[in-house]
Amino acid sequence: MGEHELSPVRGPESSPRSSVSRRRFLGRSALLAGAVAFGDGILDVARRTAAADGPGTPQPPPLEEKRTVRISNWPLYIDAKTVQEFEVATGFKAVYTEDVNDNNEFFAKIDEPLKRGQSIDRDLIVLTDWMAGRLIKLGYTQPIDAAKFPNKANLVEALRGVGFDPGRVHSVPWVSGMTGLGYNPKRLGRELTSVNDIFAPELKGKVTMLTEMRDTIGLVLLGEGADPAKCTLAEAKAAAAKIKKYREAGHFRGFTGNDYAADLAAGNIAVAFAWSGDVQGLTKDNPDLRWVAPKEGAMLYSDNMLIPKTSDRGDLAAAFMNYVYEPAHAAQIIAAAPYLSPVKGVDAELAKLDAGLAKSPLVNPPAEVRARLHVFRWLEDAEDKELNKAFQDAIGA
Amino acid sequence: MAGIAAGGSRRSALAPYLLLAPGILYLLAFYLVPALSLARTALSPETGPWYGGLQHALSDYGMHLVRSFQYALTATVLAALLGYPLAYAMAFRAGRLKNLLLGLVMLPFFTTFLVRTLAWKTLLADEGLIVRALGALHLLPVEGRLLNTVWGVLGGLTYNFLPFMILPIYVSLEKIDRRHLEAAQDLYGAPASVFRKVVLPLSLPGLLAGSLLTFIPAAGDFVNAELLGTPNQKMLGSVIYGQFLTVRDYPLAASLSLLLMFFILLLVLAYTRALGTEDLA
Amino acid sequence: MKPALRGQAGSRWGGRLLELYAGLVLLYLFLPILVIVLFSFNRPDGRFNFVWKAFSLAAWQDPLLYPALVEAMRLSVSVAAVSSAAALVFGTLIALALCRYRFRAAGAVNLFLVLPLTTPEVVLGSSLLSLFLSLDAVMGYWTIVLAHVMFSISYVALTVRARIRGFDWTLEEAAMDLGATPFQVVRKVTLPLIAPGIAAAGMLSFALSLDDFIITLFNAGSRVTFPLYVYGARRAAFPPQINVLSTTILAVSLFVLGVIVLWQQRVHRQNLRWIPESR
Q: Which 205-264 residues of chain C touch chain A by CB within 8 A?
């Protein structure tokens, strides 16, 4: 019996040709679907530049995958070329992901797997001092191979001895940054000088603060005339209570990680607690934006590169650290993300790239600004928990 | 229907169960077991009585639960007010355009939910066209803006789940026998009474199904509130997300999830008792 | 359309008003989509494609410029393909069981199928997470796929059931009477009959998987799907390539949808033709 006799989809008068062409069409679309799904089609072009450990390859990875270093960093923290140039210079691949938006949020993602000794698919992560300290204390990091990282000698003296990592065995700073006010003077019709301007009644609904507790509480404390480096828990909780009062009255548009950036550029926000280098990067989106260290003071922090203990590519991570600790490379990064570089000799290199920026107070704060920079004091676990609870309640999280 | 009776003697009584087995077992493993796992997490806190998590959840976040249901209800009513006339026009006045319109209503399904919601951010921006136009007409709410207000959140919720309202209403209107309508017209005359006495009752199952399909995702949503609201509009979904993935207070997070599921399940059961499962499909 | 029906929508003015209102609702539905498509032709000066600057084809000429975005899209397409294939098998078998047999558990199965559809995504996502956590599972590609198959099965089963209800299954009997083996029957009779329904369900589950954000957020581990990429991108940099890819998904979906609808109409017509008494 021929196959067409049995086919009920074919009406008495439909020709065999149409059913054949339909079948061929189906076959082709199935092929296409498969090709698209597994990257053998048009997307193949992209695969050369994308991660080698892509989806659809659940089998044990080929040797090549071993040579990829996977990096998680904060947004707006690097230029467009460094990663590619690192690949060319070293022969390694690098997957650079801007997926750190909040220390707590990122910690929550990696805590469970690291606790169990599972891979987090990252070889280098960048977290703020206090969180870096917590990770090191929990034993979640591995020491950096000094032999693979000769440029560590370029680390500035001031950042060599930190309490959470004496001798910088597990961590080196990516950059240091200042937290102050980001704003649009054109839209405001005036310049800002005081932290407390953010509470001005006419700015109701047009301001944001950061979900990063130490930055936000620290700045509010400065506005209250307290020193975040020495504050009592009660003072810090009073600052949280002030934030809560204003939040409940609808004063804040939100509490953000890096997501204040787009809203500040689009004009939905007039004033934000903002990170110094971000705002400079945003001036391409909106040339009117400005960052200022308030007269009461600004917060100073460092974000640190760490190697998760479960990474089997510590040598590649160290190679990346070594690469970005070359003054010329560091300068290229600073030129795009104008923060304070921890690398010695970066000023001379930056002057070659962008003479104006090299003199910018964002990159080289003058002494009178430096004098106003504060580091949030170390919080013991119990204090951290208590203050964090008050803070989360204050921001309505 | 001829097909259903075709089972007949040739096939063993086991056949339907064999066909069902893989899918149903899968759903048992990855729907029911997780739900039970959630319930266990919620109801066995490390310290205190079994209901401690629930108590904590209700006292700390009862407000968010109430707010989620309020917003979802408002969005459902708005979606019905917007969706019913459109479905009606499609069913009775579109003529040959019917299929085209049906495709157009489904259009939002084929663009990513998040990208769509972010597009609303662009549309509602403080310096955008809509806000400027409304501002010129003095029609803005007291906040003087739309983005990051309760209006933004409600607009986003209504928008994102509107097709779920329109499609079931359309299907139920489409099913109405046109001869009924002609008869009703002879009987009642006035179009308003025809609508009230014939069309509306016959489309009620669709309206109810649409309401349920709009209400449920809206009540559990947090993307609209996160992107288009402020912390003061935070919905329960946000809290569940934050408690699970940032704070990692699992018993509390699971309790919140369980509460949300419990209230929605009540709604669904009430619905299916009244109308069966047919119109939800 | 019969004049009598037009009359029942009310007076001429009432009808116009209704059409105007319906048009405005449609506009509301399209507005964001217009923005998405329009902004794929934008040329933002900086990182964020949220404010209109200038018309440009740059993003269309270089849609794969950002490796991480391409990688996310590739992951999403791969997950959607694998999960909708699995869901199609499970769901279609369920639909066949429900349409072709009478059995005692049918009512319970129907209710059970509707449950996942009526459970909020945040509950589905968090309960799966709670299971995976208790199993010490490693989150990643396969946990995403498992989750997507779960929420797709019901959609597939209900869609296929809706499309094949009312088909004439006596054809299978006839084929058997003519000496076909059960395998032949399935291949030559059953599959061609239900194929358009399966295609529609496949497209639906593919689209659902591609679009899913909330459930994936809970179960993705360190993997980044397209929606997760978009969620992160609004903080870091939102290039117009996101809009280009979204517009492409839209265009491809519309095309596939059109093909399926035409095909379905044809199969339906032909199936009816086999049943002399059906008209």
A: 221-224, 232, 234-238, 263
Cα A273 off chain centre by: 16
Closest CA to A139 of A179, A169, A159: A169
Q: What is the CATH number of the domain that holds B194?
A: 1.10.3720.10
DSSP codes joined into one string, A27-96: HHHHHHHHHHHHT-STTHHHHTTS-SS-TT--SPPPGGGGGEEEEE--TT-S-SSHHHHHHHHHS-EEEE
Fold of A63-170+307-325: D-Maltodextrin-Binding Protein; domain 2 (3.40.190)
Chain A contact present for C45, CB below 8 A: yes
Tens of pLDDT along C98-156? 988 888 888 899 989 999 998 999 999 999 999 998 898 888 999 999 999 999 999 99
- The DSSP letter of residue A340 is B
Residue B92: both structure tokens together: 């009775």
pLDDT tens by residue, chain A, 397 residues: 333 333 333 333 333 333 333 333 333 333 333 333 333 333 333 333 333 333 333 444 455 445 899 999 998 899 989 999 999 999 999 999 888 988 998 999 899 899 999 999 999 999 999 999 999 999 999 999 999 999 999 999 999 989 999 999 999 999 999 999 999 998 898 999 999 999 999 999 999 999 999 999 999 999 999 999 999 999 999 999 999 999 999 999 999 998 999 999 999 999 999 999 888 888 889 999 999 999 999 999 999 999 999 999 999 999 999 999 999 999 999 998 999 999 999 999 999 999 999 999 999 999 999 999 999 999 998 999 999 999 999 999 8
Evaluated on CA atoms B19, B21, B25, B28, the torsion sign reads: positive
- Residues in A 270-329 with any Cβ partner in C closer than 8 A: 281-286
CATH 1.10.3720.10, applies to C65-278: yes
Min distance A152 CA to chain B CA atoms (Å) = 33
Q: Which residues in chain C have their CB less than 8 angstroms from residue A10's CB?
A: 270
Instruction: Tokens for A54, please give them.
Output: 């892509």
Q: What is the count of structural domains for chain B? A: 1
* Cβ <8 Å between C122 and B122: no
- A368/B93 Cα distance (integer angstroms): 74
pTM attached to this predicted model: 0.86
Each domain of chain C, given as residue ranges in start order, spans: 65-278
Interface predicted TM-score (ipTM) of this complex, two decimals: 0.90
Q: Do A267 and B148 touch (CB under 8 A)?
A: no
- Bridge-based pairing of strands A171-183 and A252-256 is unpaired
pLDDT in tens, B43-96: 987 888 888 889 989 999 999 999 999 999 999 999 999 999 999 999 998 888
In the chain, the amino acid numbered B96 is R
B268 vs C154: CB contact, 8 Å cut-off?
A: no
- Test the A interface: residue of C35, C50, C64, C74 with most A CBs within 10 Å: C74
Nearest CB neighbour to B114, from listed C129, C213, C243: C213
Residue of C nearest to B219 (CA): C120
| Partner residue facing C48 (CB), from A47, A116, A265 | A265
Beta carbons of A143 and A336 less than 8 angstroms apart = no
C:193-232 residues touching chain B, CB 8 A cutoff: 207, 210-211, 213-214, 217-218, 226-227, 230-231
Q: What is the Cα–Cα distance from B240 to B248, expressed in whole angstroms?
A: 10
- Domain A177-300+375-394: give its CATH superfamily: Periplasmic binding protein-like II (3.40.190.10)
- A254 CB near a chain B CB, below 8 Å? yes
Nearest CA in chain A to C51: A266
- Say yes or no: A244 contacts chain B, CB-CB below 8 A: no
User: Does pLDDT of B98 surpass 90?
Assistant: no
Residues B38, C127: C-beta atoms closer than 8 Å: yes
Q: Structural domain of residue B138, as residue ranges?
A: 30-280
DSSP A194: -
Query: Tokens for A304?
Result: 């640190």
* Set of chain C residues whose Cβ sits within 8 Å of the Cβ of A11: 269-270, 273-274
